[in-house]
Structure formats: structure tokens, C-alpha cells
Design goal:
7-stranded mixed β-sheet; transferase; 4 helices; about 35% helix; alpha+beta; acyltransferase
Length: about 140
């Protein structure tokens, strides 16, 4: 059984593991160097500093997390062991105010997930926000 709650500092290691394994499972387009650089930012800056909604298992271990900036979905990562079980959908349902999300174009599984949640592509950037050659789709719900 999955429960959704606010993140706590003690969740960071499990959240990093969920991030790492989710990215390994879905971001095969990342170079090894970019993966290492992004992982360092996620581990050292993003996860310890931001607030998240976490999906936790029966042992209260984070298996997925979601980060928001107002009505924009900044991050949604589900450990591959829990994909397909409704965890991502439950996180999304816990924040009905979400209107927009940016997603890697080269991650068709994520694009499809967001389309099933009612999002449509409204724009595209050829580079990610760090200037790397990973195109980003800008999606909006309800258009």
C-alpha cells in the first residue's frame, strides 16, 4: 500500500535512489558524463533544499516523489520497481492544481504518461535548461 506525504530530510537517500533508478530506466539518451553531473546536482542541491510530495511504501520508504513550483510540475520520479502500479498517477492526483510540465522529448514513456493525465504539447525547446542537447517538450493540461 502506498501513502503520500510531505518529504522529510531522512527521505533524501531513498528519493535519490528512486531518481537514479528511474533515470537509468527511462533516460538512455543521457551521456554518462551528463548523468554523473546531473546526479550530483540532484543529490547535493535539489533534493536537500526543496519540499516534495513522496509516495512511501508500507515501511515508510520513499519509492517516488514529486516537486512543484506553484502550478508547474518540476519533477516526478517513480522507482522502476513501482512503475505501472498507479504511484505516479496517485502523486499527480494529490496535486490537482498542476497545469504545466516540461519533459524530455527523448523519454516517450514520460510523454505518454503525461498525455494520459490530460497534458498536451504546447511548445518545444531544442536544449534542456542547462543548454544540453536534450530537447524539452512544454506541456499544458486541458488544452
Amino acid at each position: 500500500m502506498i501513502t503520500i506525504r510531505a518529504s522529510a530530510p531522512a527521505d533524501v537517500p531513498a528519493m535519490l535512489e528512486a531518481w537514479r533508478e528511474a533515470v537509468r530506466a527511462t533516460h538512455d539518451f543521457l551521456s554518462a558524463e551528463d548523468f554523473v553531473a546531473i546526479e550530483a546536482i540532484v543529490a547535493e542541491q535539489y533534493l536537500p533544499a526543496a519540499s516534495f510530495a513522496v509516495a512511501v511504501d508500507e515501511a515508510d520508504r520513499a519509492v517516488a516523489f514529486m516537486g512543484l513550483s506553484g502550478t508547474h510540475l518540476d519533477a516526478l520520479f517513480v522507482h522502476p520497481d513501482h512503475r505501472g502500479a498507479g504511484v505516479g498517477k496517485a502523486l499527480m492526483a494529490s496535486a490537482p492544481e498542476i497545469e504545466t510540465v516540461d519533459v524530455n522529448e527523448q523519454n516517450p514513456q514520460a510523454v505518454g504518461f503525461y498525455e494520459r493525465q490530460g497534458f498536451r504539447t504546447v511548445g518545444r525547446s531544442p536544449l534542456d535548461d542547462a543548454g544540453r542537447p536534450y530537447p524539452i517538450l512544454h506541456m499544458r493540461r486541458g488544452v
